[in-house]
Specification:
This protein is of the alpha/beta class and about 475 residues long. About 25% of the residues lie in helices and about 25% in strands. It has three domains: about 30 residues; about 210 residues, P-loop containing nucleotide triphosphate hydrolases (Rossmann fold, 3-Layer(aba) Sandwich), CATH 3.40.50; about 180 residues, Ribosomal Protein S5, domain 2 (2-Layer Sandwich).
Length: about 475
């Protein structure tokens, strides 16, 4: 009897080594290497079902199907997908536990089945009764939605061949296993093999497959990094599970824009679309605000979004002041603080600075720089910004305000929500068709600080 050969595989990044290592050399994670049995050296028979017998075709001779996309009937979901589900694609949805991944997929399955699509919902973590309870709560009643609690990939493939569904949902990829691999479900080898199996099924049989993925404590998708490369679309479901709203964000999409965001609100009857997210994030912004609170116009994909940024500046008794940033890039905040000290003369060396984006939104674009700077400056000098003013602009290291894209859409969104004034970069210029809102063009940071406060310009004088 031949001796079994094993290898050690990192469960975080998929790094392989012949012996145990306490720390993974690839991702620097401690205790993540798990011993797995290697495949037998004898070659397995090739599955004829997965052989692609097509011959090469000229690009001009390839004809597209009439129904290349399927609408989910959820406009926010369609926005993130780039217009709907593409037939024959493999979509990966990941998010924290309890964030609502199974809820949105069950809602989507119910709406698709009402439109005549045949759906196979494979639940590897819940029983049929549990899914039925959720479906009753979501008021899902349809005749073409099949629920299949199963973890064995070979049995799942058999049901796909028998039912021939239009869409297959697998919840989750970490819980299913194939008999061709000796390792347990959830291991790197099993995830890679099962995902490859589902990908071949989607491409060869023109079936849309949606899989749910777990995330690690760092927020990354659990399993090998190759998992994200194999799928066509990677979508993250974000948000605080203790709050009602959720964000659906695409980080990879072969058939659409990767910067689109869909916003939902979680309620007793499931997830509800938020068609005007700016109103949602500004619903608690009162007419009488406090120092350190400003409204910015950020851009998420093709959609302008108005959110509130708050800053808190206070003297610290400790030798090293704290810097905390929630919702914005921490290094970006440090850069803005350095510009405020050097170019404006605002001394923050002995003060704690906290910056927070209301609503749990993650802002990555530099157009939020000016809003962060004004929030910190007004809080440091105890001066309030006009509540009807929206701030737009990127800050350079020399204190200049740089142009941003889609300025017309941002200003139009602010005007629609009742804002009377907008501070924008001087380099952008004023759109010709914008009327009914005062546009103030600022060339440098000190100009914007002076313009955003009351008419006497108290903040500019104090600095």
């Amino acid at each position: 009897m031949s001796k079994l050969k094993t290898k050690w595989i990192c469960q975080e990044c998929g790094y392989e080594t012949a012996g145990y290592l306490g720390k993974c050399p690839e991702c620097s994670t401690w205790g993540s290497l798990v011993e797995e049995i290697q495949q037998s050296s004898s070659r397995k028979p090739v599955n004829a079902d997965f052989l692609n017998l097509q011959k090469p075709s000229l690009l001009n001779e390839i004809e597209l199907s009439k129904e290349i996309r399927m609408s989910t009937n959820i406009s926010e979901f369609d926005r993130v997908l780039g217009g709907g589900l593409v037939q024959g694609s493999l979509v990966l949805i990941a998010g924290d536990p309890g964030i609502g991944k199974s809820t949105i997929l069950l809602q989507t399955s119910g709406l698709l089945s009402k439109n005549g699509k045949k759906i196979l919902y494979v639940s590897a973590e819940e029983s049929s009764n549990q899914i039925k309870l959720r479906a009753d709560r979501l008021n899902i009643k349809t005749e073409s939605l099949y629920i299949y609690p199963q973890t064995n990939l070979e049995l799942i493939k058999k049901e796909i061949d028998d039912i021939k569904p239009d869409v297959v949902v697998v919840d989750s990829i970490q819980a299913i296993y194939t008999q061709n691999m000796p390792s347990s479900a959830g291991s790197v080898s099993q995830i890679r093999e099962c995902c490859n199996f589902l990908m071949q099924t989607a491409k060869n049989e023109n079936i849309t497959v949606i899989v749910v993925g777990h995330v690690t404590k760092d927020g990354n998708i659990a399993g090998p990094k190759v998992l994200e490369h194999m799928v066509d679309t990677v979508i993250y479901f974000e948000g605080d599970k203790y709050k009602s709203y959720r964000l659906l964000r695409a980080v990879k999409n072969r058939f659409g824009n990767t910067s689109e965001v869909g916003i939902f609100e979680m309620g007793a009857s499931g997830l509800t679309e938020v068609l005007n997210p700016s109103e949602l994030f500004l619903n608690e912004h009162s007419e009488i605000t406090t120092p350190g609170s400003v409204i910015i116009a950020t851009n998420e994909g093709t959609r302008p979004l108005l959110v509130e940024i708050q800053a808190l500046v206070g003297t610290t008794p400790y030798p090293s002041p704290r810097r905390v940033a929630n919702g914005v890039d921490f290094s970006r905040v440090l850069q803005i603080l350095a510009v405020l000290e050097k170019r404006v003369g605002l001394n923050l060396s002995k003060q704690d600075v906290y910056v927070n984006v209301i609503g749990g939104v993650e802002i990555s674009e530099p157009a939020a720089d000016l809003g962060i700077a004004l929030a910190v400056a007004t809080c440091a000098r105890d001066v309030m910004v006009d509540t009807h003013t929206v701030i737009i602009g990127e800050i350079g290291l020399s204190g200049e305000i740089r142009a941003v894209n889609n300025i017309e859409k941002r200003i139009t969104e602010a005007q629609k929500l009742g804002f009377k004034k907008a501070i924008i970069p001087n380099a952008n210029g004023i759109p010709a068709n914008i009327k009914g809102i005062e546009i103030i063009k600022a060339k440098r940071l000190i100009d914007a600080i002076t313009a955003c406060v009351s008419k006497d310009g108290r903040l500019g004088k104090k600095l």
